[in-house]
Amino acid sequence: MGAHHDKRFPGESDDYRTARDKLLSAERSLRSNIGEIARLRQALPPGGPLKEDYLFTDASGTEAAAPIRLSELFEEGKDSLFLYSFMFAESPCPSCTALLDSLNGAAPHIHDRLNFAVVAKAPAAKLSDWAASRNWSNLRLLSANGNSYNADYFGETADGGQIPAINIFHKTESGIHHSYNSELLYSASEAGQDPRHADMIWPLWNVFDLTPEGRGQDWYPGFTYE
Looking at residue 63, what is its pLDDT? Predict the structure, then answer.
């Protein structure tokens, strides 16, 4: 019997169980910390009011591209809006693409509780074509070509480089306010680590972290694999 429960797996040694119990103690602490961080995030006071009601071009589906303002992304009864800034101006980012491959499957579940969309600098037609090539049938895709949304909310550098930012906006009686940004991206990383600011929404790395090999130091997503 271990320190936390009565399960023993076939053939495991006492050394394995001792080490696994130590890991399980750390996992329990992590579970608690994740909950506490979520509570701190949810308790943030309102951020700044929306700088402007940005006009995007909807690049979703097969219909002709249509203009839509950020305020129109809020559906009745849903007061939070999740926007992911996709690194795609001239060419799409492989890592963002891998993340969005996952979110395409999760999008119907997400959308049942909150407003959710993906923003890219690429023109709407280019964005729509890429989505079709990836079979993204569930993602709401918005082109920010022609507005300053990415620059204003740190999804873009001063010289036009694209940044994979997560931003949350919240609709209140006083208007739309910024609520959250994945600021770990801009904070110095620990030695040997990427920013990991999007890990909480990205199954890929969490799956790798469960294995003896881990996520490694030199593997990154590609568009295709042999």
Answer: 56
**Nearest in space to 59 (alpha carbons), one of 129, 161, 108:** 129
* pTM exceeds 0.90, yes or no: yes
CA atoms lying within 13 Å on the CB side of residue 126? 13
Residue whose entry in the numeric block shows the structure tokens 């103690």: 25
Amino acid at 170: H
Residue entry with tokens 């023993």: 8
Output the CA angle 220-225-226, nearest 5 degrees.
135
Task: Count Cβ atoms within 10 A of the Cβ of residue 68 and give its class: 0-12 exposed, 13-18 middle, 19 or more buried.
Answer: middle
In 3-state terms, what secondary structure has residue 205? helix
**What would the two tokens of residue 16 be?**
């394995």
Whether pLDDT at 62 is above 70: no
Side-chain half-sphere exposure of 65, counting CA atoms within 13 A: 17
pLDDT digits (tens, 9 = 90+) for 147-162: 999 999 999 999 999 9
For residue 156 the two structure tokens come to 């873009």
* Backbone angles phi and psi of 2, in degrees to 5: -90, -175
